[in-house]
């Protein structure tokens, strides 16, 4: 179970890094911007966020059963 937590931690760190890359790639003081070149990055962040949320929910349900 410790390895599972490490994988979740690494996925969370990667999500933060991806979001920071998308934020800073748009330029100075522009923030998040939906561009056709960045759409794949936003989709990847969405998939990673949903998978991380589902895995956290499954982990907490497994702890409740024990």
UniProtKB/TrEMBL annotation:
Organism of this sequence: Lactiplantibacillus paraplantarum
Superkingdom of this protein's organism: Bacteria
Identification of the protein by name: Membrane protein
Key words of the record: Membrane, Transmembrane, Transmembrane helix
Transmembrane segment boundaries: 7-27, 39-58
